């Protein structure tokens, strides 16, 4: 495939905010492709070269890309920088400068395969002299590129490909290109993606072997599974009701979710909730897991929490977060803040997939597969059928340092549902009953200039929740409290790579921010209550036709949810559930409207 065709499709994608149209553009793009090109196009459209969990980065900073654009177009670098400051997008500058240049030879002829392999070279360049290699490869590509190709090449290397294509849009498009676009086909494709976390594999298997092939995509050690997620209920009574009167309650540990993959040869890889590999941060778990889990090849899941080495008590979560991203001093931090992994599920045991088995069976397997060690233990569990038993277990969990309980369904059908949020698991935190004290993970989509003491920096941020059905980020509050000076001062840097000139098409808000950001950074906030609002757009129409949900008195808790991607933030649907669960409620809800969410 010619790269020009891909660039043209991106241009069309960029021009439409409509998900249906995006799906058609992508489906047309994928349909004629097979194997190699299909895989490349699927990854490139996600802004990737390989599945995300492999964590391959191009390592191209703005300054490096600027240099390459300047060299390739014969422009001086300050001019490139000036123009980019005006447009806010080096991709556009590259496009303009390429258009203004008379090429020495006829342009283009670039193929997707060539571009991909050159981008691989950029990613592979490491260490001394790597910057020069990256610039050279990029210049060579840009010299051959048409203006449109140059725009998307630059955006790709900077990680700002803004075509707005998220995983589920690609799933939709694949269903349309290769499987008649039915709902059933879509859900099988999504299922394969949830198990493999790799749309390249899903696409090429589907194109080659159809839906039958897709159903055979299973678990592979070393390829993370998208995590099963929990719903919430406001009281233990309701929790038990939902579960049919009887449930397994477990301590809800407040730490980091860890999915551990154990190979037969003793090799262990750990993945975060976002499927990033975090093995290097927890060497003690990597060392202990092969001893503790006697069912390799295996995939197990648990929550990793800090433990006081003297008293064996669970410590506050903040201690673990100090270890994240830590490369130096790991040995010291490890001794000061040892962690323990409390295992709560098993997906692969002795090389056999068990995720489709019901929960009681999986728990039995987990118990049979684990020999607890100092660092790896089982999540505490009790089967309850009375609210009084549940309350007693909750108190026990909280006294032991947990933040609540996790209820798990014992009913037929209680398989592990990769990538899905549902009432098979229900989280219940101890303070749900005291009004809206549960936190919300909001995505930063806008910034407001500060005044007074905060002049010159951002004073507040526009936050949004995610609506997967609409594939939109809907605003629910403007938050300025809770940030300390250092955090505020660091925000521009954290947000820099998400900055865009206009409101991104996937963002929905009645407010106009001073600066707009692509959804990327996730913050945890708390507030007094959820109310109806004419300007915020979260779950708009679900309670009242012209109103969305807004959080009153929002406050940043100080916790950046770097372990969550924007689509993993709190959803509009969850916000609605929280609104309904509030002790004091505004006007009655219309269930029809809610069902449409
Ligand atoms: P979510 O994962 O539902 O998007 P979140 O990351 O904000 O939300 P919580 O709402 O606090 O986290 O609760 C869910 C998380 O609780 C799980 O993803 C997991 O990391 C953690 N957890 C702790 N104990 C357990 C347990 N026993 N079983 C399942 N998950 C548990």
Give a structural overview:
With 597 residues, this protein is of the alpha+beta class. The protein folds into three domains: 48-158, Orthogonal Bundle (DNA ligase i, domain 1); 229-429, DNA ligase/mRNA capping enzyme (D-amino Acid Aminotransferase, Chain A, domain 1, 2-Layer Sandwich); 440-581, OB fold (Dihydrolipoamide Acetyltransferase, E2P) (Beta Barrel), CATH 2.40.50. 39% of the residues lie in helices and 20% in strands. It contains 21 helices and 21 strands. Strands 12, 13, 14, 15, 16, 17, 18 and 21 form an eight-stranded mixed sheet that branches. A hairpin with a 4-residue loop joins strand 13 (458-467) and strand 14. The protein is globular and about 80 Å long. The chain binds adenosine-5'-triphosphate (ATP). Adenosine-5'-triphosphate (ATP) binds next to strand 1 and strand 2.
